[in-house]
Amino acid sequence: MVRNGVVLNMRSLSNSAGNAGSNNVVVSPDRTFADVSGGALWIEVLNETLKLGVAPVTWTDLLYLTVGGALSNAGIGGQTFRFGPQIANVHELDVVTGKGEIVTCSANKSSELFYAVLGGLGQFGVITRARIALAPAPQRVKWMRLLYSDFTTFSNDQEKIIANYSQPDSVDYLEGQVLLDNGTPNMWETSFFPTEVVPTITSLVKEKGVVYALEVAIYYNSTNEEIKDQQMKQLIRQLNNERGLAAMKDVTYYKFLDRIPCPVPRSRSRTRG
Ligand SMILES: Cc1cc2nc3c(=O)[nH]c(=O)nc-3n(C[C@H](O)[C@H](O)[C@H](O)COP(=O)(O)OP(=O)(O)OC[C@H]3O[C@@H](n4cnc5c(N)ncnc54)[C@H](O)[C@@H]3O)c2cc1C
Question: PROSITE patterns per the record (predicted)?
Fold first, then answer.
């Protein structure tokens, strides 16, 4: 992997004790941004910002990735259709360049370096700090999976939702998945179809060979739950999914974002190079 290259253990940047924690993530007094170590994990960013009722607006599916690692790619997830990828929500970076200089860069300062490093696959410097935009965090999430046996119907519904992205009644998260005939639907790590519909879904997958899932989430707080419920019902009425094969969950914002388990046990992930 590193012939003529260099391997850096970015987790050693975490703090002087080598532990993950609040030293990695410093939220500004007005809570509009956080300064985050390049070696911090996104789950740590979530933990620290949520304590103050704020959070980044756009996420990857898996949160057990470093901030520098995701920003060296793009950081794409279900919020990207509204807010862009994570690299579009960074105000400033500290970068160690190939010449060993530490440069603070942004859209207005050393912008060539800034835009090269964001999505730069580690080829233009090492991100040691990122200033990440924050917004008020919602409390809870209404999370739905809708199934489609026809690709055109599925993509038409997906595009309909995306086209509404700038409206106040836009959904907050949208992804799509393909379900193949290689197991039952509840083998998905994040699946939540009621057991009584699983045989129907399984036979649909067997019959069609492939079934498509639209995954949608709407965020809410105790103050606007009723409005968001109406919004969800109105949305479902407009969509053309397989009726009777929808599933819904109501979870905390934290549980929703942390829905994919860490693939490496945490004690190992801390020391991994
Ligand atoms: C299970 C899994 C799920 C994923 N889900 C998503 C997803 O939903 N959305 C998404 O966008 N991506 C996703 N990814 C891809 C992920 O964003 C990239 O693989 C990212 O690089 C991982 O970060 P890392 O901390 O593991 O980086 P590493 O694997 O440690 O590094 C990857 C590369 O990034 C560069 N890099 C890492 N840190 C820095 C730094 N501080 N400064 C400069 N360059 C650096 C280096 O070139 C390095 O070679 C996923 C990956 C996995 C394994």
Answer: FAD_PCMH (PS51387)
> 3-state DSSP call for residue 219?
strand
pLDDT digits (tens, 9 = 90+) for 17-55: 444 455 689 999 999 999 999 999 999 999 999 999 999
Instruction: Examine the fold and report which residue of 136, 153, 177 is the final residue of a domain before the chain moves on.
Output: 136
- 110 near 222, Cβ under 8 Å? no
Measured at the CA of 173, the angle between CA 168 and CA 179, to 5 degrees, comes to 140
The CA distances from residue 130 to 72, 117, 191, in Å, are: 11, 11, 33
Q: Specify the ligand 1 atom closest to the Cα of 120.
A: 44
- Sort residue 131 into left (φ over 0), alpha (ψ -120 to 50) or beta: beta
Whole-number Å distance, alpha carbon 200 to ligand 1 midpoint, is 37
Do 164 and 243 lie in a common domain? yes
108 Cβ neighbours under 8 A, 6+ residues apart:
none
Mean pLDDT, to the nearest integer, of 45-72? 97
Q: What is the 1 CA–ligand 1 centroid distance (Å)?
A: 14
> How much distance in Å is there from the Cα of 256 to the middle of ligand 1?
21
Q: Which of 44, 62, 97 to mutate to test the pocket of ligand 1 (most atoms within 8 A of CB)?
A: 62
Q: Say whether both 132 and 172 belong to one domain.
A: no
10 ligand 1 Cβ < 6 A: yes
